[in-house]
Write a structure and sequence with these properties.
This protein is mostly helical. The protein is built from 32 helices and 2 strands. The longest helix has 18 residues.
Length: 544
């Protein structure tokens, strides 16, 4: 009669560069998509890589702006390293944006960097500062041979000139004008060669320049793949330097978000052996630094979202490894005030949740540890106020853990976690739907579970939910009530005694709800003994 089918759902897609905004100078978001069909189970998926919710002005509001801008193709995810601003670029300790140069002034700077004199480095430094201006960038790349001059200096044997030229190319790669960035493509083969460069700073600069060049340029990616970018990156992942590893993760995350990634990039990444190193670095993030761990966690997330490599990740033990990491993160959080740990928590939750959404995963073998639920609730409690999007990520994972697994449904009840879940109901529309979905997962397991839900005072909060006008939240509440009435008739009696029929009747005029409302009223109001709703439950099995 009801036809509502519950299943695991995956918080998949591209997104939430804004999570990293606190650590980078400029960042832009990408909007994810849920796996098709997820909406039928839990309602519309939220946007944003970590699904920020409403809140005061801050990351959550910024997220909405970034997602909108991304949809309008106004922003791309690029990063800029400016750790040593040149003197002309500072005034009273504050970095200034230079005014645009005329074409003649740009030409004069270009002539200066070509002169074989002591003045050349100064001219190159001035050019780097000038290239921070968008108009100057456009004028520079239009000059015949300008980029070729930079490439020549970049490949010179003079380390100081090479570094300064690399910074100029990096400024150009960060341009929001695709024509400017694509003008730098002749340097890509050299960037790959220099990934085993003479200094950490130089290697890091080459990596971020590569990442900027591949983010929006399909031509750049098609050029870099046959040049061997994946093997070159694989050789870097053994680096002992956190800055190099973080830059490497950035390049990989850019590549793995490309539209052609599932067919052209992910297979190369798998063949390179990179995933096992990514998983190792993600799981060692608390010991070796979270920067690289965050980057590689998002890389794993994008691989999972490609739907082409999950068997390989599962064979590497990704599910138990990520579950163990969540336990470690929760332990770390419970001991001290976390500083930036949400940046790692978010993609780890997503990876694990998405892997559990795969039908090939045997949860009994892969993961069956009630400590994971305790860890989720510790994370929920810690990040509830400051980072509400983490609440949604935790609930997605809890949904997938309980969807087909009585073990976790029982653990929610026996560990007394239900009150914490019910407290989340008023938070937001998305959180309410997810909480109700988890409760449906539990109720679907049968009479013993519904009895426990009823005894733990679930009816009163549901009456509050029915007062809301949101049809999606109310619809999910109706599904939960149906399961409770079906498996544990005493819940229906309690519901009616508390005025539940009046709460239901107010939704009879809502077209998408009226049929379900009528059916529930029939179930709840029918005389005792007339149907399965009044079945005796004297010999219920214990919670498994």
């Amino acid at each position: 009669m009801w036809g509502w089918r519950r299943r695991r759902a995956r918080p998949s897609g591209r997104g939430l560069e804004e999570l990293r905004a606190r650590r980078r100078e400029r960042e832009a978001g990408r909007e994810p998509r849920r796996r098709p069909g997820a909406e039928a189970r839990v309602g519309a998926g939220r946007a944003g890589r970590a699904g920020p919710g409403p809140g005061a002005v801050g990351p959550e509001d910024l997220a909405a702006v970034l997602r909108k801008a991304r949809r309008q193709e106004q922003l791309v995810s690029k990063r800029l390293l400016r750790e040593e601003p040149v003197a002309e670029g500072r005034q009273d300790g504050v970095e200034m944006v230079p005014d645009p140069l005329t074409e003649e002034e740009v030409l004069e700077l270009l002539r200066g960097v070509q002169r074989g004199s002591e003045d050349r480095k100064r001219s190159l430094s001035r050019l780097r500062w000038a290239l921070q201006n968008k108009e100057t960038q456009q004028k520079f790349v239009r000059l015949d041979g300008s980029v070729r001059v930079l490439v020549g200096l970049f490949t010179s044997s003079l380390a100081d000139m090479q570094m300064e030229a690399a910074r100029c190319l990096h400024e150009l790669s960060h341009s929001s004008d695709p024509a400017v960035a694509e003008a730098c493509l002749p340097v890509t083969s050299y960037l790959l060669t220099y990934l085993s460069g003479h200094s950490v700073e130089f290697t890091e600069l080459c990596l971020y320049t590569l990442g900027n060049l591949v983010v929006e340029s399909e031509a750049g990616r098609k050029q870099l793949l046959p040049q061997g970018i994946i093997p070159a990156l694989a050789s870097c992942i053994q680096s002992p330097h956190e800055a190099v590893l973080e830059g490497l993760g950035y390049v990989l995350s850019q590549l793995l978000q490309a539209k052609e990634a599932p067919t052209e990039i992910v297979p190369l990444v798998l063949d390179s052996g990179l995933p096992q190193h990514m998983l190792r670095l993600v799981c060692s993030g608390l010991k070796s630094g979270t920067g690289a761990a965050v980057e590689f966690a998002w890389c794993l997330h994008y691989i999972v979202c490609s739907h082409t490599a999950n068997a390989a990740l599962l064979s590497l033990g990704a599910v138990p490894a990520l579950a163990s990491l969540l336990l470690d993160l929760a332990s770390e959080i419970s001991q001290r005030t976390p500083d930036g740990l949400e940046l790692l928590v978010c993609p780890v939750l997503r990876c694990l949740s998405n892997l559990l959404a795969e039908e090939m995963v045997d949860c009994e073998v892969q993961i069956q540890d009630e400590r994971l639920l305790v860890a989720l609730f510790i994370i929920l409690q810690c990040f509830f106020q400051e980072h509400p999007f983490i609440v949604q990520e935790c609930l997605w994972l809890l949904n997938n853990l309980t969807a087909d697994e009585p073990f976790f449904c029982s653990a929610v009840l026996t560990l007394d976690l239900l009150p914490g879940l019910l407290q989340l109901l008023p938070c937001s529309q998305t959180v309410s739907v997810l909480v109700l979905t988890v409760l449906c997962n539990i109720a679907e397991k049968g009479p013993a579970y519904c009895q426990e839900l009823h005894q733990q005072a679930t009816v009163a909060p549901l009456l509050g939910i029915l007062k809301l006008a949101d049809s999606e939240v109310v619809g999910q509440c109706l599904e939960l009530l149906h399961l409770l009435f079906l498996h544990w008739p005493e819940a229906a009696v309690d519901f009616i005694s508390q005025g539940g029929h009046r709460a239901l009747e107010q939704h009879q005029s809502t077209p998408e709800l009226q049929e379900r409302v009528r059916a529930l009223l029939d179930m709840a109001l029918q005389p005792a003994g007339d149907s399965a709703v009044s079945t005796t439950h004297a010999a219920l099995p214990a919670l498994s």
